[in-house]
Amino acid sequence: MPSSRNQVIVDLRAVSHNYNAMESKVKAGVKLLAMVKGDAYGHGMVEVARALYASGCRYFGVAEIGEGVKLRQASLRGKIFVMVGTSSDNYSHYFTHGLTPVIYGPEGLELLAKEAQRIGQKIGVHLKVDTGMCRLGCKPGEAKDLYLKIHEHPQLYPAGIMSHLPCSDEYESAQTHESLEIFIQTVKGAQDGHGIISHIANSGGVLNFPRTQIDMVRPGISLYGYYPDGGAGRIREKRAQLLPAMTYRSEVLQIKNVAIGTGVSYGHTYVTKRQTRLAVIPVGYEDGYPRNLSNCGEVLIGGQRAKIRGRVCMNLCMVDITDIGNVEVGDEVVLMGTQGSQTITADDIAALSGTISYEVLCMIGNNNERSYIQ
Ligand SMILES: *Cc1c(COP(=O)(O)O)cnc(C)c1O
Hints:
Elements: E1 7-11, H1 12-23, E2 31-35, H2 37-41, H3 45-54, E3 59-62, H4 65-73, E4 79-82, H5 92-96, E5 100-103, H6 106-119, E6 123-128, H7 140-152, E7 156-162, H8 174-190, E8 197-201, H9 203-208, E9 216-217, H10 230-234, E10 246-251, E11 254-258, E12 263-264, E13 270-271, E14 276-281, E15 298-301, E16 304-309, E17 317-320, E18 332-339, E19 342-344, H11 346-353, H12 357-365, E20 369-373
Parallel strand pairs: 1-20, 2-3, 2-9, 3-4, 4-5, 5-6, 6-7, 7-8, 8-9
Antiparallel strand pairs: 1-10, 10-18, 11-14, 12-13, 14-17, 15-16, 15-18, 16-17, 18-19
Helix pairs in contact: 1-3, 7-8, 11-12
The structure holds pyridoxal-5'-phosphate (PLP).
């Protein structure tokens, strides 16, 4: 297969750096579970997990069971938590691939117990409690019952209690303190003195609310070089210094000089205000590059910023290079990353297109060829 002009480059050294930076923010004795769901937020789950393992990480989090199986097939060791779980016919994989199930209701518990009995293997489960996210998890009031139910099945044993924070990306948030209080009380109420672990902190918890670091923390976005509070997070003082790991680049496909008054792209939403030099770039929304960047995004060419003119198409977009000298067909275009002294981050793209870095990374990373810097 000929390779695409559009390349995502993932710097695994940056991922390792970010892992170490987050480790240094975590209190002694607290485990760090790396969230690698969403194909590691677009960075490539297997490659990222291997790099993290080499950096000392022994706990990984995925959404679906198939992702966990894929990691095992790539010979990844360590614990792999399946956060979202799956339908009943897949429960055997927890045993055959040594994955850690997260349980949030009696149905899942029964199905898991049945499978454990059939296979004749013990398994430790983590119980997920909803402390304010209003997403997956049992109600705090149901946790004790569910916890006791785990004990009713000889093949199951409780290994942990977890929850998730809805507002920890906010630098100050009463909700986070409230969720933490509910969680601490729930753990106290459910636990019977055995040494199970509890965990609630995501990247925002680790960075903004150190009290949420209990026995384990589960950062995701920070490992990829981004702060949960977006561009503002990067400039806060005394933060872990995180390095964006993903670069997205392409090249100039065609150059055209057009007269003043020329409509550009679908709908002619941009009309040139002067004689203009445009570069056509083979990147569009099909590549995960947001269409909302139409008439407002920027790319880097020749170390300078070039504005997107007109609408972003499915496979193409046009940028203004009138003020950039000596651009030639085949020249490098950086859509996200650094060129010369200029940088465009996923936060910049997110701010212009009305979303968050998480989505930008997933969309660009998972819709382009990736290569790696080890
Ligand atoms: C995605 C996720 C995380 C990580 O969140 P970040 O904001 O990326 O750090 C942690 N825990 C659970 C359950 C998640 O789904």
